[in-house]
UniProtKB/TrEMBL annotation:
One of its GO terms (molecular function) is oxidoreductase activity. InterPro entries: ADH-like_N, ER, GroES-like_sf, Lipid_raft_assoc_Zn_ADH, NAD(P)-bd_dom_sf. Residues 1-35 are annotated as: Disordered. PANTHER family: ALCOHOL DEHYDROGENASE, PUTATIVE (AFU_ORTHOLOGUE AFUA_7G06260)-RELATED, PROTEIN AST1-RELATED. This is Zinc-containing alcohol dehydrogenase. Residues 8-21 have a biased composition (Pro residues). Signal peptide: none annotated. Residues 22-339 form the Enoyl reductase (ER) domain.
Length: 341
């Protein structure tokens, strides 16, 4: 099969690692790579139709677990083989999902996943659109419902909640980085949950209309947050840095502060050293786990029109270096960059 692999550094060079990440030129489309085979209960072989390119993938530790690694987590495609006849899926099923971070291998013609990492693809979406969902939408799902404590509505309740006026809503939720790859799903799922959504962004001129279209009750710039001291029941941060540090001022004394910014993994300890935390606030960082339950729920909301998927641009596998450089630069589109094969 064809697969995009991270080739090692030249012999006389320092080996690639998270502290010395490989350049995009180390990404090569290789041919005649062995096709993985289902070998235990739950294994599913998927013919990959689309996957995603995420910023900074070449800085992730799992990229360097072994040489010639195939990376990539998001996936949409068609089931071609299963290990067990009683599997949840059968050959021919159109699926989408996310490979676990410690064994990512979606940048290939075929990928091996566990049945609990997949769900049937939303009927309303193309393969490209479906591939844009799993990592970002499941991160939003877990941030809000698993860690933020927001009650998860049924799909039918979600539709009703999105039609509510702001005055009918109870809990107040702040989402930073609201127009980003994870933020756009946080806004949509929070709106579906019937909470009052305040979407924070660097530019209202660029993003306010878009964010309100996703269900935000208010769209504000970060400099406008000073008037919101102590008013939020839940804050989900996607930005980190000083934006996250200031969030302690805006969360209630008994509220929840969650960060999904990868550079903020130890923010609670760091902020405690700086004397800027509140004792009553439940604060945490997490890395998305993913589940078939979350995928099924997201697919259901998509098919009912409560959640949209966003794709910026699609690249062929042969253009992976260009796609990775695009993902790591500043681009004006909203959503994910896609690789197709």
């Amino acid at each position: 099969m064809q697969a995009i692999r991270v080739h090692p550094a030249p012999p006389s060079s320092i080996p690639y690692s998270p502290s010395n990440p490989a350049p995009s030129s180390a990404l090569h489309l290789d041919h005649n790579v062995p096709i993985p085979k289902p070998s235990k209960p739950g294994d599913i072989l998927v013919r990959v139709k689309a996957t995603t390119v995420i910023r900074d993938m070449l800085t992730w530790p799992e990229t360097y677990y072994h040489e010639y690694a195939i990376i990539g987590n998001d996936i949409s495609g068609i089931v071609t083989e299963v290990f067990s006849p009683d599997c949840k899926f059968q050959p021919g099923d159109e699926v989408f999902g996310m490979a676990a971070t410690d064994r990512a291998a979606a940048w290939a013609e075929y990928a091996l996943l566990n049945e609990d990492e997949l769900a049937l693809k939303p009927k309303a979406l193309t393969f490209d659109q479906a591939a844009a969902l799993p990592l970002s939408a499941q991160t939003a799902y877990e941030a809000l419902f698993d860690h933020g404590g927001i009650p998860m509505p049924s799909a039918e309740e979600a539709i009703k909640n999105q039609a509510q006026s702001s005055g009918q809503k109870g809990q107040r939720v702040l989402i930073t980085g609201a127009a980003g790859a994870v933020g756009i799903y946080l806004v949509q799922l929070a709106s579906a949950a019937g909470v009052h959504v305040v979407a924070a962004t660097s530019s209202n001129a660029r993003n306010e209309e878009f964010l309100r279209g996703l269900g935000a009750d208010e769209a504000i710039e970060y400099g406008m947050l000073e008037s919101y001291r102590g008013v939020f029941d839940v804050i989900i941060d996607v930005v980190g840095g000083e934006v996250l540090a200031k969030c302690w001022d805006y969360v209630k004394e008994t509220g929840v502060l969650v960060s999904v910014d990868s550079a903020s993994f130890n923010f609670v300890e760091e902020h405690e050293k700086r004397g800027i935390r509140k004792d009553g606030v439940r604060a945490l960082f997490f890395i998305v786990k993913g589940s078939s339950k979350a995928l099924h729920y997201i697919a259901e909301l998509v098919d009912l029109g409560a959640v949209q998927s966003f794709v910026v641009e699609a690249y062929s596998f042969s253009k992976v270096q260009e796609a990775y450089d695009h993902a790591n630069g500043r681009y004006s589109g909203r959503g994910k960059l896609i690789l197709t094969i």
